[in-house]
Amino acid sequence: MAEVIYVASARGGSGATTCAVYLALALAALGERTLVLDGDGECASGLEICGLQGLNVYTLADAEEGACRVRQAVLQHPASPNAYVLPTLGLKNPDYCMTAVNECAKLFDVVLCDGVAAGACRRAIVVSAPYPSSVASAKLRGARLKDGGAENVGLIVNNVNGGLVYGGAVLSPQEFASVVRLPLLGVIPEDLTLPLNKIRPSTERAFQMTAEALLGRSTKVYGTVKPYLGVTGYFKRKLRAHV
């Protein structure tokens, strides 16, 4: 039976869908059969990030109308046989996602619910940028998830620029987690190639470390400041100051 995890955005633009997809790919690489329930019923952004946009025959909306079974709407990632996406494109009743989770839970090891089916999840992840403007929303989001029945709520600090952390312009991920009172599950560095179906090796490693932490295999998180240390880091900081 799958562990069902709700992935919540602290505020718009935090990158929750991108994190859900790449976390699923990292879990799949570790041998976990993983499904992303793409909660974007209007644009199917999860499909787009996976490079599957337009390739689906059915969506969860078709299952809702009785045109197919839920499992027939599930798509396998072309480059990762353990990673799957279930689009909700066109879904009229969001509550039907609960039915989908119940049907899929026995087929997977992990189900990541991207903004839907919160009631089916006893575990949740809040995805937030590290900026001061996100503190209140991340804290409120975590509190509401706990009040809603989530027994385990962790934090992924996304889009972290190590240079800004080093210079003190933004909180470190550890400081941010302390302020919003959520355990730090993962740190994802700033990567302008996302979500274009590309990923830098450093970002891929960050998601791998997050997946290992999610599975309880490690407590380490990716260090975003290290590239800005030493002589090479000095020139990086100088270059950034002039950009």
- Count of helical stretches: 9
The biggest sheet amounts to: 8 strands, mixed
Number of strands: 8
Mean pLDDT: 90
Strand share of the residues?
Answer: 15-25%
| Amino-to-carboxy terminus distance | 50 Å
* Cross-sheet strand order for the largest sheet: 3-4-2-5-1-6-7-8
The CATH superfamily is known as P-loop containing nucleotide triphosphate hydrolases
Which percent bin holds the helix content?
25-40%
Q: How many separate domains make up the residues?
A: 1
Shape: globular
Q: How is the CATH topology named?
A: Rossmann fold
Radius of gyration from the alpha-carbon trace, in angstroms: 18 Å
Order of helices and strands: EHEHHEEHEEHEHHEHH
* Highest CATH level, the class: Alpha Beta
3D architecture notes:
The chain has 243 residues and is of the alpha/beta class. Helices cover 35% and strands 20% of the residues. The chain contains nine helices and eight strands. Strands 3-4-2-5-1-6-7-8 form an eight-stranded mixed β-sheet, sandwiched between helices. Helix 1 (16-29) packs across helix 8 (201-214). The protein starts with a strand and ends with a helix.
